[in-house]
Design a protein that fits this description.
The chain crosses the membrane at residues 31-51, 63-89, 119-137, 143-161. Keywords: Membrane, Transmembrane, Transmembrane helix. It is rod-shaped, with a radius of gyration of 36 Å. It folds into two domains: 2-139; 174-240. The chain has 240 residues and is an all-alpha fold. The chain is built from seven helices and no strands. Helix 1 runs antiparallel to helix 2 (59-96) and helix 3 (102-139) runs antiparallel to helix 4.
């Protein structure tokens, strides 16, 4: 019974750990989907609202505009593709992995890719801002371009500062917390497995001791003496 209870406890701990990791995986998937949706919007703005430089536009200015638009489009497309791959490959690896901790490994890999994807998205947004600034100088006069550039620079600087503030407020070492959680679960499971092994070993030793005592009893002839004493006992005959 103790072995069965310990096995049930291990199963319950493992099931709870999988449930928590499933919630965390769903959270990462929702996060990446939101970032990918914003990246799609930036791709659309970059591709479908392109401007054509005039003949008198400087070559370096048109070069900055086209290069920034292409780089922004490429980075945001990377974000979209990565988000789709994470949503498809992450849960599949967690369910069909070879090791027992495949769900935890999938969550850790998704966190790493999420961080890289967010870096590419921020770079894509920065190049999108550069694209918009250069577009104003391509199509508008100098006075309007200066005003638009000032507004864009101030707006992007405010967005960047608020992003840093929010990251600082909600920052925590997610990899350390995840590793500590999996260590605690593994340690508890390991201790329970050691207890199970000790219990099984004690039961085997008890069974072996009983078997050895029974064999000694049979080999020593005590069983025959007990039987003869019972047959020679007059009280036993009267009872019969």
């Amino acid at each position: 019974m103790m072995v069965a209870d310990a096995a049930d406890l291990n199963s319950e701990v493992h099931a709870r750990s999988l449930a928590v990791q499933k919630i965390e995986m769903d959270n990462i998937h929702q996060y990446t989907d939101g970032v990918a949706a914003n990246a799609v919007l930036l791709c659309g703005f970059t591709a479908f609202f392109a401007v054509e430089p005039d003949d008198d536009c400087p070559k370096w200015l048109s070069g900055i505009y086209f290069c920034s638009s292409v780089v922004s489009l490429s980075l945001n497309m990377y974000v979209v593709v990565t988000a789709n791959l994470l949503g498809a490959l992450g849960p599949t690896y967690g369910l069909n992995g070879k090791s027992e901790n495949s769900m935890h490994e999938a969550v850790v890999l998704m966190k790493k890719e999420r961080k890289r994807m967010m870096t590419f998205f921020e770079l894509g947004a920065a190049f999108f801002g550069l694209c918009q600034c250069s577009a104003t100088w391509v199509v508008a006069d100098n006075y309007s371009s200066a005003i638009c550039t000032t507004v864009l620079v101030l707006g992007f600087f405010y967005i960047w500062s608020e992003t840093r503030r929010l990251k600082k407020e909600f920052r925590f070492d997610e990899f350390h917390e995840a590793e500590e959680a999996i260590k605690i679960v593994s340690r508890s499971c390991r201790s329970e497995s050691l207890k199970n092994k000790k219990i099984v070993k004690n039961e085997k030793n008890e069974e072996a001791g009983k078997r050895m005592s029974a064999e000694k009893f049979l080999s020593s002839g005590e069983s025959f003496r007990v039987r003869e004493s019972i047959e020679m006992d007059p009280m036993s005959k009267t009872r019969r």
